[in-house]
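dude i think i finally got it to work??
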Amino acid sequence: MPGERLDEQTMAIRAAKEFQEGMIINLGVGIPTFCSNFVPPDREILFHSENGVVGFGPIIDNPDDADENLINAGVQPISSKPGMAIMDHAESLCIIRGGHVDITVLGVVQVSEKGDLANYTIPGKQIGSLGGGQDLAFCAKKVIALTTFTTKEGDAKVVKECTQPLTAPRCVDRIISDIAVLDVTPEGLVLREVAPGWTAEEVQALTDAKIIVPPDVEEMTLL
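look at this
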């Protein structure tokens, strides 16, 4: 039997390992927003949200402590930090389109073996919400897809070809999921890490895309 799947908070902790000192990081709606809660206190990361704020702190859980005018792209109340900047929407998008975002972490409906990203429409809903996702997918220096490996119904989200409308083609660099970490390379999807209790064969069984398994696959760690 496969091991347990990581919960959303643990997935966010793993994704936050990617953030290095001084980086500008944009967090997409959904699981990615949790990443701002898991940065070591001695590491300075500038979190950016396309609605017009850069340099904010963790999400605020207690509504009594929240400022309704200070939110992230997921409409979650966020804490302020010294040096935080507020700007209009146009200037915020200039940060993205100017190539100043080091990493964007985006949620996923589907991601293909070529790095194609589909995440702005939800299957069954007539209208999608593109937001700043297309700009981020094209312009960020690195794109990380943070997602459960399958849907609630058990369908693959990491696929050979996307069947949902694309946000952007060939943009994803790394996939961090609840069972594995994979890199998108010119040769295909390369398995880098597996969650505790999982094997490469069990990960492969949950996608129709071919996964390359090198000899140095590691067990996922959070620190």
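Residues 8-219 form a domain with the Glutaconate Coenzyme A-transferase fold (CATH 3.40.1080.10).
im so relieved honestly
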